[in-house]
Amino acid sequence: MNNKKLHRNDILYPELSYKITGICFDVQNELGRYLNEKQYGDYLETLFAENGINYEREKVLPQAFDGEKARRNILDFIIEDCIVLELKTKMFITKQDYYQVQRYLNSYNKKLGLIVNFRQRYIKPRRVLNLNYKKEEKIEQKIFENKIKKYLKNS
Questions:
Q1: Is the pTM for the entire model greater than 0.90?
Q2: What domain count does the chain have?
Q3: Residues 6+ apart with CB under 8 A from 80
Q4: Cβ(151)–Cβ(52) below 8 Å
Q5: pLDDT per residue as tens digits for the range 101-142
Q6: Range of the domain at 25
Q7: Residue 1: inside a domain, yes or no?
Q8: Does residue 21 lie in a domain region?
Q9: Residue 22's domain is classified under what CATH number?
Q10: Is residue 2 in some structural domain?
Q11: pLDDT tens sequence across 54-101
Q12: Nearest alpha carbon to residue 123 among 45, 23, 49
């Protein structure tokens, strides 16, 4: 990949999403179209580590209500603490898949999600934007985390 900067002001995280997409292409070229999500995730995890990309894998969403069974909703990856990556291995991406990613974006207050379906002949990552993104929550969360760190450091 060349080091030219992408100059699109209307796309969120252009360099990172381009890099993720390139790695997804590499995964499909290497593994083909007929494995399961976990297998693609394992290889993606290897390539993210090799490329110095920070990620969290299989992050569990907080419970939406009292009594909800644990581990009901698990997202595939959060990349660089800003992009939700959801893997699919099915014939078609549906509205439910978009709703699922929207739920993940809202739960973790992230701006951008990518849905990648490895079953298709050519992968076409679908971008999902969080229209409910709250910038101030992220700032408040950082302030809270910094206060906790200072408290623990002084204890």
A1: no
A2: 1
A3: 16, 53, 54, 55
A4: no
A5: 999 999 999 999 999 999 999 999 999 999 999 886 555 666
A6: 14-154
A7: no
A8: yes
A9: 3.40.1350
A10: no
A11: 999 999 998 888 888 888 899 999 999 999 999 999 999 999 999 999
A12: 23
